[in-house]
Amino acid sequence: MGALPDPVWDHESVSTADAPGPRLVVGLANPGPDYEGTRHNIGWDVLVELASRALPVPASFSTHKRTNCEVAQTRLADQSVILARPRSYMNLSGGPVAAVAKYFSVAPTEVIVVHDEIDIDFGQVRLKRGGGEGGHNGLRSVTSALGTRDYLRVRAGVGRPPGRMAVADYVLKRFSKLEQPDVPFLVQDAADAVELLLRHGLETAQNQVHTA
Q: Is 40 a catalytic residue?
């Protein structure tokens, strides 16, 4: 990957040190019913689960035209949280993610992105900050638009494609009949990981999630 483009805002003007604002959790996915239930859309499924846990009542999503995202403003883990899904296709996710982060004054390094990960066994969840994109077009777009790789990531393992199946075909397929009974547990575990990250920070959340 070449040099990253200039960020879409002045990072120094977006700081939560003095006046903490909401936390931003983004779920990567493709829009439309044709993609519902596919491996690539697990990030959106996790956000729907998080919205159902919101207090005092479940949160609902609405179109936020200024950022081209579907957004729910709510509370999770005793914090003000913005849940957002880009309404663009996966490989163009970055623009909406950067726009919603800027709109709600969330520093790029504090953005939490939930996404599918083929390099993790199905059913496993891992957390990290930064690193490469591993061929994930959504992450590549987010990195480019935010101007940094150092955002937080909740990686929902969907496993590698069988045989010689192309990765692009694999992630756009729905989970197999064998996998489907365990998908709700993956979604719940990833949502739990987001809440741990919000409440305790990366290191403590990793210690709990990675040893479960």
A: yes
